[in-house]
Write a structure and sequence with these properties.
The complex is a heterotetramer of chains A (166), B (678), C (99) and D (365). By secondary structure, chain C is mainly alpha-helical. Chain C is built from four helices and no strands. The longest helix of chain C is centred in the C-terminal third of the chain and has 31 residues. The chains are: A mainly alpha (166), B mainly alpha (678), C mainly alpha (99), D mainly alpha (365).
Chain lengths: 166, 678, 99, 365
Amino acid sequence: MTEVTFYFFGILTLASAIFILITKNVLHAALSLVVTLLSVAALYVFTNAEFLAVTQIMIYVGGIVVLIVFGVMLTNDVSGKTIISGSVNRLSGTIITLTVLVMLIYSGQELTPIATKVHNTASIENLGEHLMTTYLLPFEIAALLLLIALVAASIIAGHDLQSKIS
Amino acid sequence: MALISIALVIFLIPLTAFAMNVIAPKSRARTASYISIILLLISTILSSILLLKIGSESAVTRMDWFTVGSYTFEVGVLLDFQGVLLLVIVNMVSLLVHIYSVLYMAKDPGYTRYFGFLSLFTFAMAGIILSDNLLMVFVFWELVGLSSYLLIGHWYSKDSAAKASKKAFIVNRIGDTGFVVALCIIWYQFGTFNLDEIQVLMESSQLQNGSWVSGLSALPAVWLSFMGIGLFLAAVGKSAQFPLQVWLPDAMEGPTPVSALIHAATMVAAGVFLMSRVVVLLDLTTLAIIATVGSITAFMGAVAALAQYDIKKVLAYSTISQLGYMLIGIGTGAYEAALFHLFTHAFFKAALFLAVGSVIHSLHALKQKHNLNIDAQDMRIMGGLKSNLPVTFYTYLIAAFSLMGLPLFSGFLSKDALLVASLNWSAAVGQLAYGVSLLAFATVTLTAFYMGRQLLLVFFGDFRSGFSVSEIQEGGWHFKVALIILCTLSIGFFWSFNPFDYMSSWLLNTLPAKLNSTPQFDLEVRDATNHSFVGVGSIALVMAGVLLAWLKFKPGKILTFAESDQLSFLERVSINNWYLDKFYERTILSFIRWLTLVLAQVERKVIDRLVNSFGWIGVIFSFVVGWLDKVFIDGLINFSAFFSSQVGGMTKSFQYGKVQSFIIFALVSLALIIFLIL
Amino acid sequence: MIPAEHFYYIGAALFSIGLAIVLTKRNAIMILMGVELMLNASNINFLAYNKAGSLDGQFFALFVIVVAAAEASVALAIVLKVYKHFKTINLDKIADIKD
Amino acid sequence: MSTILFFLPLLLVFAVLAIYGERKISAFIQNRYGPMETGYYGLLQTVADLLKLLQKEDIVPRVASKALFLVAPFVIFVAVFAGFSVVPVLPTWQGASINTGVFFLLAIVSLDVIGIIIAGWASNNKYSLLGAVRSASQIISYEVPLTLSVVCVLVVTQSLDLQVISFQQGVLSNSYFADAENYLFGLSFANVNTTEIGGVLTWNILRAPVLIPVWIIFFITTLAESNRAPFDLPEAESELVSGFHTEYSGFRWAIIMLSEYGMMLLTSLLGVILFFGSWNTPFPNIGSIKLASWTTGEVGSMASVFWAVLWLLIKTIIMVFIQMWIRWTYPRVRLDQLMSLGWKYLTPAALVLLFFSALWRLMMV
């Protein structure tokens, strides 16, 4: 049962990702991205990273994708015609992607298989404790990064201050 | 805990006074000085309370100061009887000098500066006394040197004062090199500067097979002597011992109260105090050296005092001589006798200086009144002042008796203790060591002679400056208060209930009997062998000295003062302080001057030429390089710029801002690199 | 238990698809989506190869998500600015206009 | 998982009754009768409406993006309904027992934005798109204070599991946690032990009174999250016709309405669980009068099931009533007022309260 679910979500991930690749409609791509991200969240659950799965849903699906959809809407004339995104570099892109894929799979076989994957279930307490002790520095840096991103994004996308002054 | 806070308050009060005087405006100078007097009064009272509380106990409080590598340096406060007693004396003398100075320095333009530096000096002195480790002692030691320098050069516009302060500073530095060397050896051997830890480590260390073994490491035994001599050298500098005593007479260029405080009572005593702190570290060789140097200094100082005409110089040489006595005490193992003499000397010598200051002040007033061209410090113009300066005279008399070592006065007790110790030591060590005792006893007579001479010249006979004595007026209550208190404390009764027997002194009985932990040193110095003999003998010697002085300078006798070229050989030796200055001038200074001249020649002839020729070579070389630069390198750069612009023109065609193309190029290159590596 | 290699292959495939999107799409927002896919692919591997008894992989993935959020916000802000300026977010057109 | 058997029918019944209730309440607030004709006192009015809706034609606008237009209502409904999966009903009956329950709930709730955007976009209608954009920006903005106010509760409860949070707030806390101690107002130094007293005294708002202002923030933000007045800008009738669901009709429109009422129910449930004692009785044990124990029942017994469901539903319906009451009492806010309220007042206030909650937690141990 677990295997079946896993492969279902794995295939769903890849299928929806491929859909993003082949579709021309940007909005369809964005919605397909939702499916991809949700099924990736499901894959996270199989690695006992329940918290991360929920985080993935909350931040990616509830945040980033909504932002992307906003971006799509704000950067197109809302005049009825569907938003089409063409492709470039088809040949070279395909070749390079396939090369990278082959390299990745080839190097994947070099990996030493992990014999038994006995995860300790990452309880929230455990995660929180580590976040405040072992990973305090990255945690603080991430907080700083978010603040900087917040300020930066609002300044970049916000009103043009100079034109306002003049 | 209460003790330590009292000690810290005492420690910080002078610093507060210093800061206050420094920032006080000129218009509030007098108020500021009175506030410092009140502050010092408080700290005197507090230190007296501390003295009563501490008794014969000792207490150490310390905390970390800074860490270098794995070594942690500490700051701490050491409270023990001898230190607190000295603290009382420093504060008290400083207080009296402050009071005295209010009048003495009243018209001085540097009034606030003067009081500020007095307080700074008191602060530094308290630092030396309270520090529990040698590093802090060293720090405050230097601060004391600094404030002494500042005070000697108080009238810095006067050339002689500026020179004297420089001299004092430089001579002290010579001694301090010894201190630094000793500190290095101590750190290497013990790994600590804390006095109590050093004492414990020293007691547990041994001399075996010519090496000095302590808990931490072992050194050849000679380093123990080096360390002791280094510490002693520091004391030699600060306490004006042979051969570095030359700065002290010149230091009389400072205001007289400063001489009383610094160059009689406290700062010069710091050397002796340091010796008493580190007495555990001194081995037999060092002790012998200390005793010898002390006796030589005592004798030389006394001889130098014999023929001086400057009223303050007499006292300056006398101070040198008395400090020599104290070091005899240290050297002969009687550190407590040395401390005893330090304490008694502090009072009577301060009293003497202040009395002399009073005389100078009065004569100075006379000089200004009649616009005379006389030297207010020359004893040759004085005489018969006892009726017009009664308080000054009687206080001077008591202090002078104390200095001479007459019974019933404090000086007798301490000097007696020192003489007994030196005689015991000489007897224990052997024949040649009797020289030390001999010099010490000879000095007794000489002391009596020069003090008698000064007394007779200044206060008895006729006033020799051509004016009526009745025009001389004594200073105000400031002088009298300071003088009376100081001379009262010079009376023997304050120091011992039996003024004939130093053995019954409360001070000696409170001090720990024996501190020497030097291996092989087991001399019992405090036994009273020879006591009665020494006492009677020294009284006889004093009487002899006084008699000689009386015969030579008795009132009514017509005194003629020879010009300097008609003096006898002995007088010339005395008045020129054994020609030490000249000797140094001829030997060391002339050598250094010669060395500077030679080095200057070397500089000019060799190094300058070398530098110049280097410069020429450089100029020629740079011309060549400049030509090469213009032709070849510029050409190369121009060519490369041309080349790269051509290449850029070629590659521009596929670098036209398509982000994805960049990524493709990057990935292709990455793949190529990976394949090449694999 | 699912072997970690399977996670790895899914991650590799997802990464390649993301790369392909980044390389071939004209629309800047599409490229952004491709980047997100690549980040997700790496996260899958971080979680799958998380050492037993340790939480390093989870935390790495967590911080990747945080950074991705920051990246997405700033990137979209830039895209909006670009759109305001060039009236298009088609990268080819932007490159052409620039010249 | 089995709670779906409880919640799906509950949701349907609730929607029908709540729509009827809303009409009646609005009528009473506006001093009129409301539906009176169909059935006794108009009781069957909503059922009749529902039947009418189901028979209506499923219109898809010609220029709409057809697939998205069709699927969008279900996305919204699934997102809302998934939230019920972690809600506990009884001490012994809980949805998915995951230890990140609250977090999961918040994540799921944020998902329905996607559905709203799809619906608004796919309609290819200016009103719909404006409504969708408004809705999305509103939900994203108010998610921040909502999450922060929930975190305030989590700081006090020290758990993300809704069932654990439920157990903490009543007389059963000892049966779940061996050494659980509840003190009056959480002041452990005052040493008034309320573990055995239970009732309203052990609800979170009285376990830590700092949560009272937190609940006010929580309540305001849940109103915004479920697009209820006074934050119903996405479907502001006077401006946008009907917002993102302007073009919907018939069954799909019914699904959207169902989701909206489901969202109301879900946020009310969440509020009850987090602040008002979940399925615990409000009556305390007073001496030998064991009101709390009587109205809780032995765990596992039928009485327990009865009481738990009763208390949970009563409290939830009271919360829903308050939501309706506010809807018909307050005027709609402007968009800029909405944004400044969310970002400039609620978010900083929630941050400050988070700090105070942490302080309060220190007093509780």
